[in-house]
Amino acid sequence: MFLFSAGYDCRASSELSKINAQIKQTEQQNKKLEQQVKTSDKEVSKTKKDLVRAADKVSSLEDKRAQMAKKIAELDAQLEKMTADMEKNLSVVSDSAASILFVASHPNFDTENMRDYVLMSAVMSGAADALDEQIDVAKQQIKEIEKLRDARATEKEKLDRTAKRYNREKTELDKLLKTRSAQNEKLKNQQVALQKKLKDLSARAKSISELSAGVGSSEMSADARFSKRKLNLPVRGRVVVRFAEKTALGLKSDGWRIRTRGDALVMAPADGVVKFADSFRGFGRVVIMSHKNGYNTVMTNLGNIDVALGQEVLAGEPVGRMNPNKPEMYLEVRRGNSAVDPARLFNEK
């Protein structure tokens, strides 16, 4: 009996050692996994911060280049008009000079025509003075045209100088977007059920506000701040319809309409989570984000979307680009069930 017990204890001890070794091995693997997760989180966080910086540079350069291109177009229009005016004036100068030369080369000194001659001399003297004035105008027009050409050349040079820098920054932004897309691959695999739910919700919703309310937002809190600071608009452009103003249909606007460049970069208006990223009837591609303290933001008419459902995004991180064929964003901010005036939350350029 003692021998059996001793043999059993020996086997049990051996089994326990194996289990302990497996536990230790599992703990080591778990530590490695935890470290990998931490490293991955750090990489994702770094990518997000890099994207915010890159998006700001690209958006700023796009805005500057658009302004330069606009100025060049304005200068071209001025040049065209000034050149036409000058050519017209030169034609008048040419006709006047020809008339004066003709009369000067056919003088008539008959006494019976002397009165006509004196009158003609007076007229021609006045014509000569007018001709001098027209020549002075033509000289001034030529100077103005030279100035316009110099100004256009300067703007074109500025535009050309930014081209390499813009291409470099744009390439960096595209690389970062690909990196973020790869980092979100796991997130994408978890979205099938959520996407089906959102498609059903989108089909039922009658308005963009109803859709925004349907996707849900962060919990309401006593703190009603959207952010610790006023943030930049999600897209660079000009506000053409403001909060509470009448729309073309005579309805009161619950948000802002922002006229943008075609293909303008769209950035997250604040830190938050993507709650909807799909098409919605009448509004093109739409991104709805949930932010802290019960806020939701709605951004419409995107041409393409670069974020995924459930993705956490930093303020200023790129989320997509505007539709080149419809470059006007409708921006709506809601807190709970109420629309909020964006003027309270955003800096206007």
Notable features of this structure?
Helix Hairpins, alpha+beta, 349 residues, Glucose Permease (Domain IIA), 5 helices, two-stranded parallel sheet
Write a structural description.
It is elongated, with a radius of gyration of 37 Å. It has helices at 2-104, 114-183, 185-189, 192-204, 208-215, and strands at 231-232, 237-241, 256-260, 265-267, 272-279, 285-290, 295-305, 312-313, 318-322, 328-335, 338-340, 346-347. The model has no long low-confidence stretch (mean pLDDT 80). The chain folds into 2 domains: 58-183, Orthogonal Bundle (Helix Hairpins); 187-347, Distorted Sandwich (Glucose Permease (Domain IIA)). The longest helix is centred in the N-terminal third of the chain and has 103 residues, at 2-104. A hairpin with a 2-residue loop joins strand 10 and strand 11. The protein contains 5 helices and 12 strands.
Topology (SSEs and partners):
Blueprint: H1 2-104, H2 114-183, H3 185-189, H4 192-204, H5 208-215, E1 231-232, E2 237-241, E3 256-260, E4 265-267, E5 272-279, E6 285-290, E7 295-305, E8 312-313, E9 318-322, E10 328-335, E11 338-340, E12 346-347
Parallel strand pairs: 1-12
Antiparallel strand pairs: 2-3, 3-10, 4-9, 5-6, 5-8, 6-7, 7-9, 7-10, 10-11
Helix pairs in contact: 1-2
